[in-house]
Design goal:
five-stranded parallel beta sheet, two-stranded antiparallel sheet, globular, alpha/beta, single chain, about 180 residues, binds NADP nicotinamide-adenine-dinucleotide phosphate, 6 helices
């Protein structure tokens, strides 16, 4: 059966699916959000999907890593990445404002239970603000050595650090491919 999804064409464009359909509401948590992969590839790709009308209107990103950044700092740094690496150019102010209002950031340590509790509280706020309905996509943009630590905290149940992070509705975990 053909898969009806957006695909890269190989010449820098995204070919929309024959019957485009918007993704369901979701909050994407990027572990390692201050790193190169997030700024160079992940967030510019999300911006392109939004510009193509393929992201849910009820969508948000919560970046999580050690660097102490405010939401505004994070948005500023992601803006640079989008301007340099997004395929959809030029990046107009209206499109950027709409997209960036869904970008949030939380600093923390991947091996610290209290960081996960703070993260869970932020996700609950994001659900209220953006209507993301408890759906979660966890993207691991970290060195591979850290994957087991995050997965242990994220999925151990019924310990508080895990259960607060497990989305009630839909939860997906994606890890970055290593070089
Ligand atoms: N860069 C690419 O284009 C690319 C392409 C394909 C695959 N990858 C893979 O993607 C992954 C990330 O690569 P990258 O180039 O983005 O690496 P990077 O620039 O070194 O970024 C790593 C990120 O992980 C965070 N981090 C690391 N250890 C942490 C810890 N113990 N607690 C909290 N945060 C921690 C860092 O946070 P702080 O800096 O805030 O401390 C930073 O945000 C790697 O597995 C890499 O092999 C990267």
């Amino acid at each position: 059966m053909p898969v009806d999804i957006a695909l890269p064409t190989g010449n820098g464009q995204i070919r929309p699916p024959a019957r485009p359909r918007q993704a369901p509401p979701v909050a994407v948590v990027i572990f390692g959000a201050s790193g190169d992969l997030a700024g160079r590839k992940l967030v510019p790709a999300l911006f392109d999907l939004q510009q193509a009308g393929l992201l849910a209107r009820r969508f948000a990103v919560l970046g999580f890593s050690r660097s102490a950044l405010s939401d505004e700092d994070f948005r500023g740094s992601m803006r640079e990445g989008v301007q340099r690496f997004a395929r959809h150019k030029p990046v107009d102010e209206r499109g950027w404002q709409e997209f960036s209002s869904a970008l949030h950031y939380q600093c923390g340590q991947f091996d610290d239970p209290s960081s996960y509790r703070v993260l869970a509280d932020r996700l609950a706020e994001i659900d209220r603000e953006h209507g993301t309905a408890g759906n979660r996509l966890f993207y691991l943009a970290t060195p591979p050595e850290v994957f087991p630590v995050i997965i242990r905290y994220r999925s151990r149940s019924p310990k508080p650090t895990a259960s607060v992070l497990a989305g009630d509705i839909t939860t997906r975990l994606v890890r970055s491919a290593t070089w």
